[in-house]
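Service request form, structural biology core

Requester: graduate student, group of Dr. S.
Request type: structure prediction, single chain
Budget code: on file
Notes: please return the result as structure tokens.

Sequence provided:
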Amino acid sequence: MPITDWPLDDRPREKLLSKGAESLSDAELVAIFLRTGVRGKSAVDLARIMLTRFGSLSALFAADGAEFCAIPGLGNAKYVQLQAVLEMARRSLREQIARGAALGSPQAVRDYLRLKLQDRPHEVFVGVFLDAQNHVLAVEELFRGTLTQTSVYPREVVKRALHHNAAALIFAHNHPSGVAEPSRADEALTQALKQALALVDVKVLDHFVVGGGAAMSFAERGLL
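Core staff response, request fulfilled:
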């Protein structure tokens, strides 16, 4: 049955307008993005197929063009639209953390780093450079590795901190395996960076590990 034949209260667009976006299921949100279904399937049906195929919204967002377009009814136009939506979300969160103190909006920082790193096929190490009031000076991809590891050099991180005249740093890296849990190597690296930066009076405020749609905080775990 096409969505236009559904009761008004059940239609995703009308439901969003009357109850808010948070009231919609993942499939209903994706259906609004799709706008139309395919022969014999409504937009909600197609959205459910997509979520079943990829397993979650995060995995859907991380899909490459070939995987996305392999689903009947989808194509490059929809893939491009999805990438544009994701990039707008990243930029919006970047603007939020740039306007105010990073520690004043920790969820925005976490969400920005998760969106920035979660779909990378290789390990990436990012630094968020902050001034003395914890305003964002710059966000830089410092190192890029393979599927399993990244070589991070504390000396180079110190150089970049001095270049930006930073007073503090927040680090983040992704686990392409999808597990947002720190390894012993991650913990050792964080302590090495903390010690190296302390020599030039730069604090390490947090280190996020991104994977599987989540972002684990070292500070919240008491690992700093």
